Amino acid sequence: MKLQVTNFLRIKSAEIAIAKEKITLIAGDNESGKSSLLRATAACALLRAIPVVNDEGKDQILKGQSAVMVTGGAKKAEVVLSDGSNAAAVIWPKNTVTGVSPVKASAISCGLVQWMVATADSRRVMLRDALAAIKIDTEPTRAALVDAMRSAGISDDGMIDRVWKMIEAKGWDAAAKEVASKWSEATGAWRAVTGTAYGEQKAKTWKPVFWRDEWIDADLVSMRAMLDQAHHDRDEAVKKRAVDGHVVDQLKAASCRDRHSIEAEEEKLAALNHEHMELAMRPSSDHPDLLEISKRSDEIKRKMHEHDAEINEIEKGFKEPVKIPVPPAETNRNAECPACGEGLYISILPLWVEKETVTTPEIMRQHQESMVRAEEESRAVIAHNEKLSGQVEEIEKRIDALKQDLRANEDLYKERSREINREHNDKKDRLAVKINTLQGEILSHRRHNLACDNAQKQLDEIMANEAAGNTVTEATIQDMGTKIDTIARQIESIETMRKADRFADEAAQYAEIKALLAQDGLRSATLAAAVGVVNEAIYAACEVAGWETFTLNDDMEITKSGVPFVLLSKGAQFRANVVMQAVLATFRRDELLLIDGADILDAHGRNGLLKMVRGMTKITTIVAMTAKREYAEAVSGHFDAVFFADEGQFQLISKESDQ
Question: Is the pTM value of this prediction over 0.85?
């Protein structure tokens, strides 16, 4: 394969041949462009514009900031990876990705993601994908989900079916997000009902303020019927309420007030509304002043039309100019007949004599006379036409004067129309004020009359109750109100408690399901069963390399002889990450392995790394390490190709054919 790099990170320009399915070493000093070369290769192999990821495998640089990958001073960077059949290219800062990658690769095989740097959830996803490539199923079955949900106390078959259909339709991660959303909805509903922040333990013990435990099995239908009856009883009691003499005197006074007669006011209101409607429908153009002005404009237009007709009649009397005779052309005559004086035309061969017209003195005299007569007639025609033109000009002046009068009249019409409209609108506004005032007075009178009628009605009811002996004390009515409040509060407390319990149960169920569907939930337990296959591959890789073996536990953590990863030496941590990189690349059948920072290993570790990689079939490997040129030359026999990096330039030291 051939890699071409231009203006990318520390590399100005480079072109190197990568030995396919072989091991290539990139050696050089610190910051000489080794890592830049690996990132350039990864960008093309993975067809991604951002070859830098975080511990979750997501872009660590925003695409809008990708200009940082262009060498300082350059306008763009470009990387091309090709093998003769396929080629992939990436251009920055436009982040353009084109073509087809010539090798199969993944983020971990390209070294963008290191196993123990990634989050636990990301590691589970990587391992699950790798095992799926070798036909090892790491997803839980429906039966496993059913058992797990029942063990968590969820026995609702409908809920179990819904969750499984959700997983089948959207996948585990999307289903987990949807369940988490439903959990949020349930807790939010609980907060809305209770008016307090949600807590799992709090939701189990929370009760409304006036709650009584004996209400737990209360019949709400009967209680609502009881409340309706209590309201009815109080309404009836109010009708029979005993009234003191002062209130009776007030009602008597109110009932005895004079009623207002509003018939005349309503007739006046109808007349005003009619006048207002007529005024609104009457066009302002019907005003006498505007009609008079319009009539004057029509008269001016009529006169202008008459003058136009006069001009047309006068123009019919214009005479055509007189044509002055053209003098006869002189003839180039050959000879003149001695008998008649006419011109002769003589031809030699054959000989004949032909008559030719000759301009004689008589002809010239006649022409002169014709010209004199024509000029006199022309002067007469000109004088006649000038007279008519004068008449036309005079009429046109009168027309221009009429036009000015018409414009003045139209301006007057506009001005008067505005004045009339203002007067018209003012009158309508005054009428509207009168109408509103009168309507307010009528409404006030109606209210007064209604108050008198109501007072009389209440007074009649009081008198009837007193006559029948049906009187209820104020204390009795207050007791009835207290009873209504007690029943209503009890119903509200029971409804609130039942809603809170329902939402709390939903939240608890969704919390259990959310935990089961999470990366570290049921899938983690299923994945743990497949970890044995991974550990066998780790053991085999370490055995080939001659390294102490590592172990992957159920939590996706790496340990060595029981020692956790964080307590291992830097060299051991590097070896553990590289082993996982190689194992997952093997499972996935990736064709490219990019290993950076191999200089952390000692000579034994480096030899082991080469042995392990050579034991992997059909994988192209590039190893980068900080080393002097002398070292690169000394170890060149162990690699299929060796390049030395120096300030972004790459010099081939040796290749397989040289060894």
Answer: no
